[in-house]
Amino acid sequence: MFSSMNSANAAHCLELNKLPWVARCSQLANSAMLNEVNLTPKPGLVDMRNNGAHKDMDLTDFYRSAEAIRVWIPYFIEYGMSTHLQPGSDILYGLRPLGLACEASMYKATSGVNTHKGTIFSLGLLATAIGRLVSNQKAVTQQSLCHEVASMSQGMVMRELEQNNQALTAGQRLYQQYGLSGARGEAESGFQSVLTVSLPVYQSLIAQGIDPQRALLQALLSLMAVNGDTNVASRGGPEGLRWLQQTAQQFLTEGGVMQTDYITKLKEFDRQCIERNLSPGGSADLLIVTWFLAQFPESHSKNTH
């Protein structure tokens, strides 16, 4: 099916899948996707209440997609393990066919609906990073994972978004028009928006005993307030993105999820997003990364999983 998956690789993956830590990583990836889509109410996004600003997908599409992607996580880990001696900058080329094969499984599961393309990119990088760290006998922590992803993604924005080919992709167009680097920029930065914004917000609220759903909603709104979300910009241009960021920031300024009527305000925000056909899918992808990373220790000084 693709170059890096011969019968030996496949057999190795079957063996890897029997290891508790590999199975756990697959389950964490699946749980991260389910926690995001089940989170309700979310402005403009598919959740348990409605389909947000989407007319082509619903909750069950996301469930099928998450299960399809879960199956591929061991293959990303195996790729990371088998290439652990190569420089990080050499990894992306061989990783791409694996990502495309995982995408094909997603599309098959959803009958052609793009539910998690950005998530395949980010979770694929993180699973590969886990494989490399384990094989190099390094601690798997939030910081080490993000550092490894940054190493693998170095130069991606310049190579893939700055080039001037005749048929610009949506990502290239948004980068050249508005300077938005999207998922590639996040990966190349080592998920700095997650490390500096959503993860501290989420972990702080959890530490205070706040309900995990509320904590995750606060993390999402914190991302929406700062993220240059290419999903939003492609639907509503810079004006739509600016409105969404300002509305999210206003919600946070008024107290965020600590407001007694925060659910009512989020439902109104959702209504406005649907009216404007805006969906912060990029922030949703980063929320999945946030929850996933939160399951690992922050640094080497703490007990590793």
Automatic annotation (TrEMBL):
Gene Ontology biological process terms from the UniProt entry: prosthetic group biosynthetic process
Keywords tagged on the record: ATP-binding, Glycosyltransferase, Nucleotide-binding, Transferase
NCBIfam families: citrate_citG, malonate_mdcB
Catalytic activity: 3'-dephospho-CoA + ATP = 2'-(5''-triphospho-alpha-D-ribosyl)-3'-dephospho-CoA + adenine
Entry's Gene Ontology molecular function annotations: ATP binding; glycosyltransferase activity; triphosphoribosyl-dephospho-CoA synthase activity
Source organism superkingdom: Bacteria
Signal peptide, first to last residue: none
Gene, per the UniProt record: citG
Name of the featured protein: Probable 2-(5''-triphosphoribosyl)-3'-dephosphocoenzyme-A synthase
Family designation: Belongs to the CitG/MdcB family.
Species the sequence originates in: Limnobaculum eriocheiris
